[in-house]
Each structure stands twice: as C-alpha cells, then as structure tokens.
Amino acid sequence: MQNSPPPFHTERLILRDFKEADFPAFFATSNDPEYRQYYSEKEDSEEYWRFIFDRIRASAAAPERTVYQMAVCLKSGELIGSCGVRMEDLENRQASFGCAIARPYWGAGYAYEAARRLFDFGFSEMPIHRLYAETKAENRRARALAERLGMRLEGELRDSRWFKGRWWSMVIYAVLEGEWREKN
Ligand SMILES: CC(C)(COP(=O)(O)OP(=O)(O)OC[C@H]1O[C@@H](n2cnc3c(N)ncnc32)[C@H](O)[C@@H]1OP(=O)(O)O)[C@@H](O)C(=O)NCCC(=O)NCCS
Hints:
Elements: E1 8-9, E2 13-16, H1 23-29, H2 33-36, H3 46-60, E3 67-74, E4 79-89, E5 94-101, H4 110-125, E6 130-136, H5 140-148, E7 152-163, E8 166-176, H6 177-183
Parallel strand pairs: 5-6
Antiparallel strand pairs: 1-2, 2-3, 3-4, 4-5, 6-8, 7-8
Bound molecules: coenzyme A.
Coenzyme A binds near residues 38, 112 and 141.
C-alpha cells in the first residue's frame, strides 16, 4: 500500500496527477506577493506557469516515468499546491525535490506531510541515492521544511542568481537513501 503508484493518500491529503482542468487552480496557488517574493519576474507570467504545467503533465505520461510532480489536494478535493520528486540524473541516482503550497495554507504542515509521503515513495520505488533541494538562502520557510525533513545543508552558492535588480544566494540541502531509511 505504502509503495503503490499514485494517487497517494496521507492523513489529510491526496497527491494525484494533474488534469488539464487543474490549470486555473494551479496558476492561482502562486498568485500571492509573499509566495512570489523569491521568484524572478520571468516566473510571474501565466505563460511561464502554463509551460511548467504542460511539462509536468508530459512527464507524468512518459513511458519510463522518472518525475512525480503531484497535485496536492485536501480530502475535500481542493487543490492547494504541488510537490514532487524528479530523477534528474539516473546514472548517478540523483533526484531533486520541490514543493509549493498556496499562501492561505502555510503553517499547517501540509508541505511536510506531502513531502514525507513522496520521499517514502521515491526512496523505495525509484533508484534514488541522493535527494536534493535548492532554494534562495532567504527563503526561511523552504529551509525550515528541508531541515524538518532531515535534509542536511550542503552549501551556499553566493550571489548565483540575478533578478528583481539584485543578487540572490542559493542554498542546497540533501538527504541520502541510508539516512532517510534510518530515520523513517
Ligand atoms: C516552502 C513552503 C511550501 C513551506 O510551507 P509551510 O506551510 O511553512 O511548510 P510545512 O508544511 O513544513 O509547515 C510548517 C509549519 O506548519 C506547522 N504545523 C502545523 N501542523 C503541523 C504538522 N502536523 N506537521 C508539521 N508542521 C505542522 C509548523 O509548526 C510550522 O509552522 P511555522 O511556519 O509557524 O513554523 C511554502 O512557504 C511555499 O509554498 N512557498 C512558496 C513556494 C516556495 O518558495 N517553495 C520553495 C521553493 S524551493
């Protein structure tokens, strides 16, 4: 049950694949100034989010699936965000993690609950050795989430992005398969 393919059910959430009809709700989750503060101007447009949405849907339909970027829904059916693990480098068994929840639902542990379920799936059903996440150094909530998930800070890429008229540093967190199994 724990390792069956999606949809995944957790205590309060359903993680399922996106459907075409989800696009307005998917786009709406990012429509908040606090949510967008760590994103570039380029990532502000509907065209950009449409491109991402289409890419997520195409990855879910791939014959050899390596990307599980799921719609995060409440049990009522309401779509509140997206969370995913993505095998980026099969040869070296490196996967990335990313999560975004609509602003009204922050502070309730939904990102953590969704991520834990995906980490369990990723480390048991995908050949992931190292699962990493990158975020802006100032993104306190994303960093707290990574730390709550047992990811270790691996480094800071100082002044590695330029947008909104200034430099931004990135931080990288990761957890290894043995570390995840030992603690979970
Ligand atoms: C990053 C992001 C997903 C974090 O959301 P979040 O709600 O803070 O994350 P969590 O699910 O870990 O919730 C933690 C909070 O819920 C609280 N909480 C309540 N019930 C909880 C539970 N059952 N389990 C865990 N935490 C719980 C925690 O105490 C914590 O509260 P705090 O923020 O007051 O410290 C969110 O800020 C976001 O979507 N940002 C915009 C997109 C983004 O920047 N994504 C990261 C890009 S790399």
